[in-house]
Amino acid sequence: MNSFFLFSFVLIFNFTNGQDFDDSVRKLITEKCIKDIDTWKKSLRKLSAELLQCGKLEACQDFKKQTLHDNIYSLYQLDSFAKLPPNLLGFNKVWSGDYDECLEVENPNDNTYQTQFCWAHLNLPIGKILAKSGDAVKTVSTTCGAGKPTDVKMSICMPRSCSEHDLKLALNHLRILPMTTKEYLNHSIVPVDDDKFVCDVTCRPVNFEPDYLFWIVTVILGTITFICVVATIADYYQEVENEKMEMSLGEKTIKERGVSEEGIFKYFLAFSMLSNGRSLMRISKNLNNLKGVECIRFISFTWVVSGHIWGTWKNADNPFKIIDILKTRSYEIWLNAFFSVDTFFFLSGLMLSYSFLPKLSKRKAMDPMVWAVFYLHRILRLTPAYLSFIIFYATYGPLTDFGPNELVRREDMENCKKYGWKNLLYINNIYEPRKNCLSISWYMASDTQMYLFSPLLLVAFLFGLIPGILFSITVIVLSTFLNYWLFLHYDLPLTLIQAYMTGDEKIIHILQDFVYEAAYIRIPPFIFGIVMGFVMLKTKDIKIHMNTSVVFACWLVSFILSLGSIFTIHSYNRGDYWTPMQRASYYGFSRIAWSISLSWLIFAINRGQSGLIGKFMSLSFWTPLGKLTFCAYLCHIMIVNAIFNLERSPPHFVGAFHTYLTKVIPSVVVSCVFATIWTLLFEFPFAKLESYFILKLVSRKSSEKKKECTKI
């Protein structure tokens, strides 16, 4: 116990020895904040004096219990501060204290005194450290600040009355942190930004305060849930009654009665979770349906999740170990998760041409009504689930922003309230893309823009394979030319990871907004999908016989193209210099190679050239998982952040297996559970209503067609 008191005294003495606020600083900080900081420091001084007295007497019999009771909170507050962590040589840049200890601080003499857990972002000479490191990290930006690649931060526990601005001024004036810059030691009150010891302070949310929008959304969610529950009960009782009537009147009479009773009630039953649940689990027996698509879709979704979890490791306390991954070739599968999005684009084009071209003729292509319905279907099919989740994300998303770790992008959620209209118009990747709502929604915008352009491609294939191929090649060449121009003109890095490591906002903006998220750059896989959909249509009634050696050669080429697309970039990621021409060539042609590989995979699975691979990818359990990917994609980033935030310690990278076991699999499972709920509440009900509306719009009265169109 004496050792503990001695240690506590040393800690308090070092802290309370700092200088007090000058008058010039007091004018810049709120009065309540200064009062609370002064109160805390006085409590520490009183506690220090008593500990010193106790130390001199070598016993604590005379220790004043009342003083201890009144001031011990100040020691707990100080104790919750960060200390120097282990693994400093591994560049441990997250120095975390005790989050729960900080929030539990209570001043027995002042009920209004409350504390908050904050991060002080330190301006340290990281450049000198990285200059002695491997090639892979020499280009890393050394800019100080929250979210920067080399952001070094230590946690502090300060009065809740202090704003982030107050704390930044206070920490740069008071000598209360363990290290300083030259200007800091000279008591510079307001140094220039580059010389400030603390360049930024960010505080973690303490309480969630719902606004009026939160309660409006809650009422809407509750109402829709209530409607779904009532519709489910009504649907169930209707089935029970129909079964009883079938036994007494016969099946034919029931069918006729069912048709006659259709009306407003069928719109209400569109919200039945019973029938929608069956739609989710339904396995189509149509032999013309493409096999393997749902498997590819779901596996690509898990790839997206793992890629975003990799991005979250930038907040880890052992970044050098993560950077070492760049030297390991096998991790390119993880680093190059970008190809998962190209897979989604390919599948989008594939399913569009395969499902729409059989319904299209040259005569119908001249009818504006056909294209009006074509576009209207897309908007009405996606928007309800998409818009409802954006609203949910903006209002309920902040509830996932808890704990000490800064992982949730609050700005992203706030932007949904200001700029969510851009997502509604599917232009969020074009108009002011830096002010984004739900950052992953750029994919929705790009895919919709490709869909808007697709009629030109579809009509070209109406005139035959050659016109369609020629037009497709023309678009791909133009896209590739733009790709080359952007890389050569701006000397862009190859990946977003490399761009963010530079810290150059202009480079990040150009690569992300004009290349990575741009439909005109990402369109080649979509076009390959449309071409492949046309090929699959033309060969669906043809029995194809291929020589075994030819099939083997095609599989071999497919593997080489796909693996080459993923692993060729390894030398660049580990630090080797690539010329702008090499970077542009890889970025443009790797996606073409990937699309060719996917094309063979689809062809082989559906034309009997895939063996066990095709059988596995055609298993029925993939179907419901594939149907969930849309809503799972929308929600997964919120789920990933919430899972990381469950931890009270900074993220710590162990390895790929550990990450998949503790992060990727839980994130995928929870995302699918959330997606199931969202699919049953929003996607399927409104998809049915959309199909009813479209059928009514085009005046298709045939009941058989109605039943076929309302299947999901």
UniProtKB/TrEMBL annotation:
GO molecular function: acyltransferase activity, transferring groups other than amino-acyl groups
Nose resistant-to-fluoxetine protein N-terminal domain segment(s): 30-188
Name of one Pfam family that matches: NRF
InterPro entries linked to this entry: Acyl_transf_3_dom, Nose-resist-to-fluoxetine_N, O2_lipid_transport_reg
Keyword terms, alphabetized: Membrane, Signal, Transmembrane, Transmembrane helix
Coiled-coil boundaries: none
Stretches that traverse the bilayer: 212-237, 333-357, 456-486, 519-537, 549-572, 584-605, 625-644, 664-686
Signal peptide: 1-18
Protein name: Nose resistant-to-fluoxetine protein N-terminal domain-containing protein
